[in-house]
Specification:
single chain; 217 residues; alpha+beta; Jelly Rolls; 2 domains; five-stranded antiparallel beta sheet; 19% helix; globular; binds 2-acetamido-2-deoxy-beta-D-glucopyranose; glycoprotein; manganese ion binding
Length: 217
């Protein structure tokens, strides 16, 4: 094997290893409770003095309250990430509560930094995710109370309430700050906006349809 071939092989192997283990870094101390007052730009958030850490730094109240689903989607996400619990900093986990009105949808979105494991607490949900190109296979299932489903990191996924009443789910995510990219909002609602020509060609739409979608997002 020529040297440059070997080097390319090593680089490809390393990039696959990084992909396979993509998640938040392991902590190097018991905890690193985030201190939002420290103005340092770093990966994660700076720690406050461990001597001043208290139980409330690891706690959040209010997840018994349902989110307000009076919106066009009929769903509401209540996040419990490092921004709600500073003690989650460096720990690589977080949580959301999702409420769904009758027929409500949590629209297609991805989490750039986390896999997700969702438990249905009330009602019935159709859930699904789509594998990456070129296959784009949709993997879907109807879940009922107590059922659990996994959305792998980075893949586009959604949930729809298919039951006769409200639905509630709790989902855990493998990042202190999973991030969310809602496809429709990112594409048709970016600031500054994407030019019409890009959107017309990408989605095979005419100018009127692009204008309509931009006005919605
Ligand atoms: C829920 O959201 C709607 C629309 O924004 C608002 O009109 C309504 O007052 C909210 N309800 C509650 C209980 O906050």
């Amino acid at each position: 094997m020529a040297t440059h071939d070997f080097l390319s092989f090593v680089l490809v192997a390393i990039s696959f290893t990084v992909l396979a283990f993509a998640s938040d870094q392991n902590p190097l101390q018991d905890f690193c409770v985030a201190d939002p007052t420290i103005q340092v730009l770093m990966n994660g958030l700076p720690c406050k003095d461990p001597k001043t850490v208290e139980a409330n730094d690891f706690s959040f109240g209010g997840l018994h309250q349902s989110g307000n689903t009076s919106n066009p989607l009929g769903s509401a996400v209540t996040p419990v990430t490092v921004y709600e619990i500073p003690g989650l900093n460096t720990l690589g986990i977080s949580l959301v509560r999702v409420d769904y009105a009758r027929g409500g949808v949590n629209p297609p979105h991805t989490h750039p930094r986390a896999s997700e494991i969702l438990t249905v607490l009330e009602g019935s949900l159709e859930v699904g995710f789509v594998t990456s190109s070129p296959e784009n296979r949709r993997i879907t299932k109807v879940l009922h109370k107590g059922d659990v489903f996994v959305f792998p990191i980075g893949l586009v996924h959604y949930q729809k309430n298919v039951g006769p009443g409200n639905a509630v789910a709790i989902a855990a995510l493998s990042s202190q700050n999973p991030g969310v990219i809602i496809i429709a909002e990112a594409v048709f609602g970016s600031v500054p906006e994407m030019c019409d020509d890009v959107l017309m060609k990408s989605f095979q739409l005419d100018e009127g349809a692009v204008g309509y979608l931009k006005s919605k997002f």
